[in-house]
Amino acid sequence: MAGEILVIAEQKDGAVKSASLQALTAAAGLGAPVVAVACGPSAAGAAPALGKHGAARVITVDVDTRDIAAWAASAAEVARSVAPSAVLLAHTLRGKDLGPRVAALLGAPMASDCVELRSEGGTLVARRPVYAGKALVTVAPSQGPLVVSLRPNAVTAQEHPAAGAVQSAPPAAPQPALGAVIKEVMAAASKKIELTEASIIVSGGRGLKGPENFAMIEELAAALGGAVGASRAVVDAGWRPHTDQVGQTGKTVSPQLYIAVAISGAIQHLAGMRTSKYIVAINKDPEAPIFKVADYGIVGDAFEVVPKLTAAVKALKAQH
Question: Which domains does the chain have, with CATH numbers?
Answer without folding.
Answer: 5-169 (3.40.50.620), 195-319 (3.40.50.1220)
